[in-house]
Amino acid sequence: MNDQSHNQIDPHGPKAIELAGVSFGYGGRPVLEEVNLAVEQGDFVAVVGPNGGGKTTLLKLILGLIAPQRGSVRLLGRSPRQARAQVGYMPQQSSLDRAFPITVLGAVLMGRLGNRPGFWRGADRQAAHLALEQVGLAALAQRPLAALSGGQRQRALVARALVGEPRLLLLDEPTSNVDVQAEEEFYDLLLRLNQRMTIVVVTHDLGFVSPYVRHVVCVNRQVLIHPTSDVTGEVISQIYGGPVNMVRHDHKKNGGCFHG
């Protein structure tokens, strides 16, 4: 990665994410209606909401996997397709076959497929090794991916998203299958990465991530964004459409998890 990868936030540039009047539905059933959302460059955002509320649809719209039926989506001032090379994406771990015979380095190199399909150059391998260094897995580059712990696999997936030198990093339920200690270490890593890129995390665990994120995007057919300090129990109840329970986690952040 070049030196510019360490200073990719332009506070005077276009919004990292901007949706204007966006609506989308399936088979005539509205999922998102008249969404207006602006995420500044350098922000750290959590996306929360009930199952079926539209979180996955919102993520697909941002990634450009689906197009809005009304309205517009812009990433870093460009269309999702035009901005794709500047966006890193980490899917849920369940989408990765742990038994697939590939090394950690090979899995990370898959993040360069969009640059030069079919073969790797020295610059690709260098970028992959640097990405592994950033997530603390440089010593495990030749280890089989299946041999890693849950927390290590999550870091390998982050490295795969970082290898393209993104300015915007999107993560879908990134810690759904790891223990509390690994989860805390993972978000500490994201906090360091946030110094040079915008980060958006889709999560059910708002209580845990609240010490890390600056804004919370609440998705339940409509979309609202709040500073983290404004997200109270009453706001959470409104997001989920009813009472919620908060389960405390036993760790130094003293966070919790909201369940609908």
Automatic annotation (TrEMBL):
InterPro entries (alphabetical): AAA+_ATPase, ABC_transporter-like_ATP-bd, ABC_transporter-like_CS, Metal_Ion_Import_ABC, P-loop_NTPase
Pfam families referenced in this protein's UniProt entry, alphabetically: ABC_tran (PF00005)
Molecular-function GO term, any one: ATP binding
Positions of the ABC transporter domain: 17-246
Residues spanning the membrane: none
Keywords: ATP-binding, Nucleotide-binding, Transport
Family stated for the protein in its record: Belongs to the ABC transporter superfamily.
Name used for this protein in its record: ABC transporter related protein
